[in-house]
Amino acid sequence: MEQKKFKTEVSELLQLIIHSLYSHKEIFLRELVSNSSDALDKLKYLTLTDEKLKGLAFEPRIDISFTEEGEHRTLTISDNGLGMSHDDLSDNLGTIASSGTKKFLASLTEEQKKDSNLIGQFGVGFYSAFMVAQKVEVVSRRAGEEQAWKWTSTGKGSYTLEEAERDSAGTSITLFLNEEGNEYANRWQIEQLVKKYSDHIAYPIFLSYDQTSYDDKKKDKDGKAEKTIEHKVEQINSSSALWRRSKSELTDEQYKEFYKQSSLDSEDPLFYIHTRAEGATEYTTLFYIPSKAPFDMYYADYKPGVKLYVKRVYITDDDKELL
After folding, report:
1. Residue pLDDT, tens place only, 58-111
2. Any bridge partners for residue 171, and if so which?
3. How far, in whole angstroms, is CA 51 from its chain's centroid?
4. Are the beta carbons of 13 and 124 closer than 8 angstroms?
5. CA-based nearest residue to 156, from 40, 1, 14
6. Residue 5, strand partner residues
7. Nearest-angstrom CA–CA distance, 68 and 182
8. Strands (E) located in the chain
9. Which residues of 282-314 are buried (b: 16+ CB within 10 A; e: fewer)?
10. Which residues pair with 140 in a beta bridge?
11. What CA–CA distance (Å, rounded) separates 62 from 67?
12. Is 286 helix (H, G, I), strand (E, B) or coil?
């Protein structure tokens, strides 16, 4: 086992990230899912361009699981993307603000960058995990390599690297949740956060959980309703990102259905506008006008806003400069 120190004044910088860079602790899940999406994008690209990886089966998925019993709860985000080698873990996770995605983007041509869905470029999103975790453990195996590695840190100045086992390429990040983070080891919390921030990620996100049911018609030896625990794995994102598609591909019905899913309105919109701007700055807008005023429009705390997405990921609906 190797024990190393982070390559910056990490204690102070981590505290800055944890307490200043992100306004809400729940952002950590968005960041980790985005990292998994980037790893899948990288593998997809390399299976087409790297001779060593050509022909490798690409069956992308992101899996989330959790343990919700006991004092120390855990939350795990896994992907079967490119994965990381020993040096990747040391360089990307052992150096604050060193982004493997940014380096990968730098290797692409301008045309390839335009088609890329890569999200993270600043190398700090991973460390948001320490907002809710007392310890973070990363097990990763890079595609094309046999050896897996485990990176472990409490975020207090050092980390360890050691050999590990993993059946296939990809990365699993396990958060050993702190007291404030225990609430995220919960099916409904996870579903709600994925729907809010990562619903339009290009790859399927699956949640594993145990569902408990009781049968009043059957009694156990104590006379209580018989309890059954069923393990389930369900996809919890839609992967639609309708605004990224050409208007010529979309039907009026698809626009209306997307509105209903996004706004939770049961009625069709009165009108919608879908435009794309190209130039130095490229962006797409999809505006809907509801057929009726929102029921809470005249409430004191009502905040109208436009949802901002960057690379399929929800950022905010509270940016006044967008209006």
Report:
1. 999 999 999 977 677 999 999 999 999 999 998 888 666 444 445 544 554 555
2. 79, 140
3. 29
4. no
5. 14
6. 158
7. 8
8. 2-5, 62-67, 74-79, 133-141, 148-153, 158-164, 170-177, 205-219, 225-235, 271-277, 283-289, 308-310, 313-316
9. eeeebebeeeeeeeeeeeeeeeeeeeebebbbb
10. 149, 171
11. 17
12. strand
Q: Report strand pairing: 271-277 vs 205-219.
A: unpaired
SS3 assignment, position 316: strand
**Using the 8-state DSSP alphabet, how is residue 50 labeled?**
-
291-321 pLDDT tens trace: 987 776 777 666 767 888 888 888 888 776 6
Query: Residue 171 and residue 82: Cα distance in Å, rounded?
Result: 8
Show the tokens assigned to 76: 């795990």
In contact, 46 and 188? CB cutoff 8 Å:
no
Collect all residues with Cβ–Cβ distance below 8 Å to 182 and sequence separation of at least 6. 73
Which tokens is 129 given? 């995990």
C-alpha radius of gyration, the chain, whole number: 22
Provide the 8-state DSSP code for 180.
T
Q: How remote is the C-alpha of 102 from its chain's centroid?
A: 17
**In Å, what is the CA distance from 32 to each residue of 6, 84, 255?**
20, 15, 30
Note the pTM of the prediction, 2 decimals.
0.81
How close are the terminal C-alpha atoms of the chain, in Å?
A: 53
